[in-house]
Amino acid sequence: MTAVQGDSDGGFGSQERLGDAMSRVARQIQEEHGDVEATLQAIAASAIEIVPNAEECGITYVIGRAKVESRAWTSDLPKSVDALQQRLGQGPCLDAVWEQEIVRVDDVAGDERWPEFGHHASGLGIGSMSCFQLFVDGDRLGALNLYSRTPGAFDDDCQEIGLMFAAHAAIALAGAQHEEHLRTGMSNRDVIGQAKGILMERHRLTADQAFAVLTRVSQDLNRKLVDIARELANTGAVPGSERRRD
């Protein structure tokens, strides 16, 4: 992926030019990566190219305001910070990111919002952080976290650029998730169709009758219908049929 280059004077130029550059990156992420995990990793790699002073990046999912899950990272450092938040039950991704679009930690060691987290995170070599909300879906949150080993690395300009990048990244991620859901849905329909076909041919059932059989077995065994269909398509036998004969 092509890095976004600054102007000759070392700046990033106008907001319009920066927005255009990040739009190109977002489109490249969508076009070059066909699954969610690859898209997340590409977003993390692009963030440290675009946001000034960002040395590392991690994408974190927080579930139920309690479970911290690392989804993409540029090194082991973001993973270690996520594990620390999970262990301590405190930190930017477990607290203010839920209520704020941006959380900036200028001095990790001295931040009084998460004193225990700050003490341990600074021991990992983190000087400052900047966290951006990617999405909130029910009790699940996605956050883009940028790290620097230097305190005060992220000023207002860095924050504005990071916010713009996060907005484009969220769009790219939503597109990848939508495509994945479509592929999964099509795959599930194909499997169910195969299972119905087997039942129709073997037992001379109509399509509706075959689907009713799959539904009944799914309910009896308390398993997803697509899992019942997949097992039938793979083995040729209706799941649980031996138990019912007994």
Helix-strand layout with pairing:
Blueprint: H1 15-32, H2 36-50, E1 56-63, E2 67-73, H3 76-88, E3 102-105, H4 115-123, E4 128-137, E5 140-148, H5 156-203, H6 207-221, H7 225-235, H8 241-245
Antiparallel strand pairs: 1-2, 1-5, 3-4, 4-5
Describe the structure.
This protein is α+β, with helices and mostly antiparallel strands and 246 residues long. The chain has 2 domains: 15-180, Beta-Lactamase; 182-238, Arc Repressor Mutant, subunit A (Orthogonal Bundle), CATH 1.10.10. The protein is 54% helix and 15% strand. The protein has 8 helices and 5 strands. The chain has helices at 15-32, 36-50, 76-88, 115-123, 156-203, 207-221, 225-235, 241-245; strands spanning 56-63, 67-73, 102-105, 128-137, 140-148. It has a 5-stranded antiparallel sheet with strand order 2-1-5-4-3, with helices on both faces. A hairpin with a 2-residue loop joins β4 and β5 (140-148). α2 (36-50) packs antiparallel against α5 (156-203), α5 (156-203) crosses α6 and α6 (207-221) crosses α7. The chain is elongated. Residues 1-14 have low confidence and may be disordered. Keywords: Kinase, Transcription, Transcription regulation, Transferase. InterPro entries: ANTAR, CheY-like_superfamily, GAF, GAF-like_dom_sf, GAF_ANTAR, WH-like_DNA-bd_sf. Residues 172-233 form the ANTAR domain. This is GAF and ANTAR domain-containing protein.
